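New to this. Look over this protein:
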Amino acid sequence: MNIDDRTEQRVRDTLHWVVKRDLNRFDAALKSFPDEDAQKAALALVVAVSGFVLIDLHGARPTPQQVDVLAEEIGRMEAWAPVSADEVATFMNAVLAGRSLTERLTPDDVVVLAFVVAGSLLAARPLPEGQWWFNYLDKVEAAIEAAG
């Protein structure tokens, strides 16, 4: 996947408000994408980030039971956002299986879930001293680009 610089910056700005748990600014950031192409590129990127981090956190593709446990944690941690643990689990299982995200979720829900899940996973991952979620995102994006 080739990551466009403008898309990357908008995605990072939006993820910032997820990490800060600021619903109003998160909503405004979601509305800042200028057109459908920019929205699709951003969604593709955050879905790829979510899938990569899910696998990286577990050292392998997580089991459905591991996904359920993680979805419960995300549901609790991200209570500020309009997502439920069941929706998070549905989203993560679809990402991991490569299934259509809109099979069981509305397109609007997919967008919100993609950013909330990616931001939550990035922020919750233990990092070395002096490292932040965006440093980890740099590594994740490099791996995604290298994978093609």
